[in-house]
Design brief:
two-stranded antiparallel ribbon; Phosphorylase Kinase, domain 1; 11 helices; globular; alpha+beta
């Protein structure tokens, strides 16, 4: 039986669905799209929800249909709606749109073409933005792409081609000038990395982690992060959720990068550490996908840069994932998607266990995840 890269997690991430009335949404969205696209008489077809991924925001897939010069036309669109109960409080929803808009101007960084942004909640009940839907395949989270789907069914050489295209696209993203995304700087005087640390400290404090080993390990991890914080890290673009599960592929080539919920100026090595940890052990389950060392080596070769402070960023990634999964599990328990016991402050949290492993501590709970094998310089 094929294992899954999700096996340490013990649950599948939910797909956000607020249960909107589909007919009402079609009726409300059609005139907005007709105006933005300059297509009088435009209609909206069936509304779908992506079935394999989408936790932080509600995403709807629709078809815009219109007639021009007696011929029927259609365009697939993705509608991204700001959440009423965000997984990442205090993150700017508008910034997601602005990052994607900035990257549209970068010839070598593929992103879906934008249609427009709407701030007024009167249209759909919350701010939203619309982009064209890119035709292709996305490695799914639900179920995980290591279990089933086009990547699990592919040959080893096909997986390798896809992985190399993904890493090369990530490297091109990291060549984008910070000036292109200067709006990500809130003007506090802190560096991009310091700003990220400030955000995640506040995220953790608002979470009210509760007593127990998880809290103690998080605090130990935080003290280590502060004590070993890189002082020479430049403020550069970080995707925030870098992984192949946020890429669209066509003919094994990366043709679009998706999801900018946590984009920041924390720098590109933050993305390498996130990719390594989110990839879990997929390269073991699906031969052809690159190992962590191969990821770093290929990225360094294509960028001409060194992945400085990678160990620090791996610790920071485990810390962030630990509190994200705490909050997500509480949200899932509140919605009846997870037993309440699994959302308790002292419940096993594989990311906090991994945080302990990165700090050479002994994790509590069972099973214990494995550290991704990586050469740390």
């Amino acid at each position: 039986m094929r294992r899954s890269a999700n096996e340490d997690r013990g649950y599948e991430s939910p797909v956000t669905d607020t249960g909107r009335d589909r007919e009402e949404l079609r009726a409300d969205l059609a005139p907005w799209l007709a105006d933005r696209m300059g297509l009088p008489g435009l209609q909206v077809g069936a509304v779908e929800i992506p079935s394999t991924s989408g936790v932080a925001n509600e995403t709807l897939l629709v078809d815009a249909c219109w007639t021009s010069r007696g011929q029927q036309w259609s365009q697939g669109l993705a509608v991204r709606i700001a959440p009423d109960r965000p997984l990442f409080p205090d993150r700017s929803f508008l910034s997601q749109y602005l990052v994607q808009e900035a990257l549209e101007a970068e010839r070598d960084v593929p992103v879906p073409r934008l249609v427009g942004y709407e701030e007024d909640p009167c249209v759909l009940g919350s701010p939203f933005f619309v982009s064209e839907r890119v035709v292709g395949l996305v490695p799914g989270d639900r179920p995980h792409f290591s279990e089933t789907g086009f990547l699990a069914d592919a040959r080893q050489d096909q997986r390798r081609h896809l992985w190399e295209s993904a890493v090369d696209t990530l490297a091109r993203l990291h060549s984008v000038s910070p000036a292109r995304v200067a709006f990500l700087d809130p003007g506090t005087g802190r560096s991009g990395l310091e700003e990220e640390m400030h955000y995640w400290r506040g995220y953790t404090d608002r979470l009210e982690v509760g007593p127990g080993w998880n809290r103690d390990m998080l605090e130990q991890g935080w003290e280590w992060l502060v004590g070993h914080q890189p002082r020479d890290a430049a403020s550069e673009l970080s995707w925030g959720d870098a992984r192949i599960g946020n890429m669209v592929f066509r003919d094994l080539e990366a043709v679009a990068l998706l999801d900018w919920d946590t984009a920041s100026l924390a720098g590109p090595v933050a993305d390498l550490a996130w990719w390594i940890q989110m990839d879990r052990h997929s390269w073991e389950l699906l031969p052809g996908l690159g190992r962590p060392d191969e990821l770093v080596e290929r990225w360094e070769r294509h960028t001409g840069r060194e992945a400085m402070h990678l160990h620090w960023h791996l610790v920071f990634t485990a810390f962030r994932l630990g509190v994200i999964r705490m909050r997500l599990r509480r949200m899932m328990a509140a919605d009846g998607l997870l037993p309440a016991a699994e959302a308790r402050p002292d419940a096993r949290n594989e990311s906090i266990q991994l945080l302990a492993l990165w700090l050479d501590e002994t994790p509590r709970g069972s099973p214990v995840p494995r550290k991704p094998p990586i050469s740390l310089r």
